[in-house]
Give the backbone structure.
Amino acid sequence: MTEFLRGIFSLTYWETVVDIHGLLAMTLLILFGAALILYFSLDKFVQAARWLKYTLFALVVNLIAVDILGIYSYGAYRAAEGPRTLLKASPDTAWLHEILFEHKEMLAYAPWLMILVALVIVAVLGDQLKSREFRMLRLIVLFSIVVSLAFVLVVAGEAVLITKVAPLR
Amino acid sequence: MMPMQTRTIHAMLIAAGKSLNIFWILNILKEAFPAVKSVLNFYPVTGPLLGIYLTSIFVLVLAFFIVRSMPFSGSRAYGTFAGWYFVVSVLVFFFAIFPPVYVPIVEWIVSI
């Protein structure tokens, strides 16, 4: 236990920041799972639309928090002695920054916005979402959740590849 | 559904699409024109990325209120257009910000 505590308290500031960033990103997976279950339960129980709204709200807040922490730690990544410099120094690793990181940092803009769209639709329509009249909007909610999840997984995959080679310390 | 509710949803779909489109367009412009990059790079610690994020959020808010105030935005036909506009914008966004896709576009613009 002493060794564990010593290890935890010896983490640097940036290691702690990026760990929290990663922790929040993991929480997204639970919320995405809950959102999908609630979406497919819209016809199954009365409160499903309301709970879907709450879950989407939590997702938007979580995604925005992940983005804010990401942009904050991006400053340290770009610093003169930071991981970006290390990656760009070798032709073997330069692609990790020039292709993967460039894509990751920009792709992260879409998920929160897509979930915000889904949230607005669910919040405005409420139980009417079950109606056949709003089938297209219902499909847009599903599209937003599924594609947003796919984008988050792509960003996470790219992050793993980059941090394996050049972690932020 | 009330007309204002319909307009809110349609405005959100259009605004989100516009925000995503302005994001990738700004990214190409900043790579092609140093002056654009310089404007977006108002906070050098994070570079032009923060400028692109904030501009796209500004476009989101502006487009939402403009579209929501338009009476025609409540129509069914406009709703269908807004839905497809959003879906296509998301798919275009994914590829338009991928360096192997946008770098040749930047090189072509610079070569003109």
